[in-house]
C-alpha cells in the first residue's frame, strides 16, 4: 500500500482493486473510466485472466487535497476451479485485494443470488470482503442498476451498507456510465495522501502488444460465443510499425489446446478466422489510432492451460507473453 506523507502539495493517490464474482462488469467499468478499450470484455465468465493496471486522475472540488490519482487493478472474477490457469486467476484477484488501499467490490444487481451480502460469506469469495478493525476500506458498486426496478435496489443498498462500518454503496451502470463519476469520487476520498504514484498522463503499464492481444481475444469471444474453447489464448508474435507510425502490421497466434478445437476457430474454408480478422483489425485500428494489417494463425499447444511453464510463456505468471 502507499504511505501518506505530510507534503501539502501532494494529492490523494493509491491502488484500488476492482474485485467481484465473474461477469459482474469489472472490465467494462475500467474501460469506461479510462475512456478506452484496455481490457477484453464479453458476456463469457472469466474473460479477464490477469490483474491489469489502469490509472485515472480525479478532481475533488472544494476539498484538500483537490486531486486524486487512482491506480485501478482490474482482476479476474473470483471462483474456485481446478487447474493452474483457474488457480492463477484466483490468486491474482485475492492478491490485488490484499495489497490495495481501497477495495471496490463490484456486484451485479441483476444476479439475485450473487448480489446478496450473504453470498460473500461463502468460502470461495469470503476473502474479498475484509472485516474487522484496521482493514482495507471497502466501497460497494452496485452495477447494472439501470436494468433493476428501484424497489429492489433500496433493500440491497441497505443490506450492503450494513456489512461493515463506513461502507459506502454506490449504484452505477458501468455500461452507460451512469453515476461512475460519483463512484470515483467516493473511492478517491478514501485514498491516502501522498505523491502521485505514476507520471501524469500515464494510463497503464501494459504494452501496446498486450492491448492488441486483449482486443483480438475479445473478438474471439464475440465471434465464437458458446463454441469458443475455454482454454484459448492470443500471442502477438510479430509487430512491425512504419517509421511515421501511421501503419502497423501485426502477426498473432490464437492458441488452443486440442487439435479438435482448431477447426472451430478456423471455420469452414477459413471463413470464421477471416471474419474474426476483419472484426479484430477494425477494433485495433480504432483503439490504436492507425491503419492496422493483421495476420492470424491458429496453433495447438496440447493442454497448455495445465502446465506452469506454458502458462508463463503465454503471459500468465507475472509477465506478458513471450514470442
Could you describe the 3D structure shown?
By secondary structure, this protein is α/β, with parallel strands linked by helices. The chain is globular, with a radius of gyration of 20 Å. The chain is built from eight helices and ten strands. The longest helix has 18 residues. The chain folds into two domains: 184 residues, P-loop containing nucleotide triphosphate hydrolases (Rossmann fold, 3-Layer(aba) Sandwich); 106 residues, K homology (KH) domain (GMP Synthetase, Chain A, domain 3). Strands 1, 2, 3, 4, 5, 6 and 7 form a seven-stranded mixed sheet that branches.
Any chance you could write out the topology, listing elements then pairs?
Layout: E1 11-19, H1 26-34, E2 52-59, E3 67-74, H2 84-99, E4 102-108, E5 138-143, H3 150-161, E6 168-171, H4 180-189, E7 193-194, H5 208-224, E8 233-241, E9 247-256, H6 262-266, H7 271-288, E10 291-300, H8 308-313
Parallel strand pairs: 1-3, 1-4, 4-5, 5-6, 9-10
Antiparallel strand pairs: 1-7, 2-3, 8-9
Average pLDDT works out at 86
Which class of secondary structure composition applies to the elements? alpha/beta
CATH architecture annotation of the largest domain: 3-Layer(aba) Sandwich
Helix content: 25-40%
Give the low-pLDDT segments.
1-8, 318-323
How much β-strand is present in the residues? Answer: 15-25%
Number of strands: 10
Separation of termini? 33 Å
Shape, per Cα inertia axes:
globular
